[in-house]
């Protein structure tokens, strides 16, 4: 019966690739001295009882390289958006002007650069955990098939394949982290 067991490695791979894509988005949000709308992408606001990306509660603009503005559509959400930005770890002090929130991008000093490399490291660690969770899911599917009569040789082959996939994705995360930390530390 389980001689026919086929692990959906495409699904595991797709989920691991999705984790890398999320990490790329999170890294894009880490500023390197210039303002960009994408730096706000990972910040979620509690709007109408659910967590919502900032770009879905207001218009994000970059009128000049060192300024990002958010024109919040609902006046009642201005405080929540401001609070979300303050608590995001971006190190930017929002300034209110009616429904417009202005984010002046300060020069990155050495200390702030080090802080941002730590934030990047945190993002990378979350990605590694997510990859390991996908790995664990694959291993559980293999264990179940083993209990249903899969041979030990087949079990080892599948486990090696899942482990190889995991190692490859973890290595990509480490490379992306090194690259981002280098970018942050450049003056």
TrEMBL record:
A GO biological process held by the record: cytoplasmic translational termination
GO cellular component: cytosol
Keywords: Cytoplasm, Protein biosynthesis
Location(s) in or outside the cell: Cytoplasm
Database matches in Pfam families: RRF
SUPFAM superfamilies associated with the record: Ribosome recycling factor, RRF (SSF55194)
Xref: InterPro entries: Ribosome_recyc_fac (IPR002661), Ribosome_recyc_fac_dom (IPR023584), RRF_sf (IPR036191)
GO molecular function terms attached to this record: ribosomal large subunit binding
NCBIfam families: frr
Family designation: Belongs to the RRF family.
Role this protein plays: Responsible for the release of ribosomes from messenger RNA at the termination of protein biosynthesis. May increase the efficiency of translation by recycling ribosomes from one round of translation to another.
This protein's name: Ribosome-recycling factor
């Amino acid at each position: 019966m389980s001689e026919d067991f086929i692990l959906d490695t495409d699904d595991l791979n797709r989920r691991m690739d999705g984790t890398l894509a999320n990490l790329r988005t999170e890294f894009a949000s880490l500023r390197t001295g210039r303002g960009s709308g994408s730096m706000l992408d990972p910040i979620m606001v509690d709007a109408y009882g659910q967590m919502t990306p900032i770009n879905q509660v207001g218009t994000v603009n970059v009128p000049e390289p060192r300024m990002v503005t958010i024109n919040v559509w609902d006046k009642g959400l201005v405080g929540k958006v401001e609070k979300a930005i303050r608590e995001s770890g971006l190190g930017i002090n929002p300034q209110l002007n009616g429904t417009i929130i202005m984010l002046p991008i300060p020069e990155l000093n050495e200390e702030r650069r080090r802080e941002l490399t730590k934030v990047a490291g945190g993002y990378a660690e979350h990605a590694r955990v997510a990859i390991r969770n996908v790995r664990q899911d694959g291993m559980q599917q293999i264990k179940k098939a083993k209990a249903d009569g899969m041979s030990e040789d087949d079990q080892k082959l599948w486990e090696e394949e899942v482990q190889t996939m995991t190692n490859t994705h973890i290595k990509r995360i480490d490379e992306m982290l090194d690259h981002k930390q280098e970018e942050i530390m450049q003056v």
